[in-house]
Amino acid sequence: MITKPKLFRIFFIFSLGFLTFPARSLAHIGYVVPKDEIGKHAGHDFSFLFSALTEPINIFLIIGIIAVIATIYFLLRKSSFFMKNVAVVRARTKSYFELTSWMMRLGLGIALIGAGTMSALISPILSDFPQFSFIQILLGFLLLSGFLLTPATLLVIFLFLFAILKNFYLFGNADFLALAIALLITANPKPGLDDLLGLPFFSPLKSFKEWVPLVLRVGIGGAMIFLAVYEKFLNPHLSQLVVENYQLTSIIPVSTGMWVLSAGLIEFAVGLVLLIGFQTRLAAVIAFSVLSLSFFYFHEAVYSHVTLFTILSILFVTGGGKLSVDKFVDKHIGNSL
Q1: Most buried among 92, 165, 253, 268, by the most CB within 10 A?
Q2: Nearest of 214, 221, 148 to residue 181 by alpha carbon
Q3: What are the pLDDT digits (tens) for 2-14?
Q4: pTM to 2 decimals?
């Protein structure tokens, strides 16, 4: 029997952990689970996934956490001090717009060099492709130096499309493709050797620059939703393995099923918020924070996260952009966060 003090203790820990610890299992499961274990634990098991909902305390926790988040959001919106500072930060981000193309090059370049040096193809999932090491490292340095950007960017896009044919799990790395497409759209060679040498950045997509935030939102939001559905909902025992191997239940004292379900719901919710462009900057800050926790806790390879961090940083600068809820809110209601 759960006593009231214990109930409140669990609620407090879970409330605090909802935005931090459960997100540790938002990492790509395939990065932290041995390949030979993936096949053994793959497969859906909805009875296990929703077993947490058979316990009243878990339903209370979910409703309580939603209420807490909604209350905090409402209070922040009503705080004139907070909203004034938000307005100041938003105004300052405008001076960063011209740096976004460079940020894209840095993210893709580091990711490619990292994958190449680890003999992986784009992602740790494709970990045994040494034949692509040289081309990835070369493309990475071309992007970092800003040299021959047009062919380099096109080759990066084709390389990802080839990789996804090797393993559909790379849909979970759609952020990589989105970043490459966004770079092709911005087509800004500054700073870089192309600009210094007078070499143009040819791109048939230059007229779509206003759509860059949407491309990035679709990439990262779609990737997170895919991982939530595929890893947590359709293959819950893979996530269970992570929870058990890393003893996550010792951090938040809830059942393994509750861990898996909450991680999937959080990842799906954050991905959906980014996808539709609702409070994009706030969502980017939260996602950046929880992904950082995931990176440090699981000790994953740096290159596998760089493109995620890059997109979230850029979305913090640009906001939701076209076809976003934020755009509608700013136009008809007031400033989004």
Answers
A1: 268
A2: 214
A3: 454 444 444 444 4
A4: 0.85
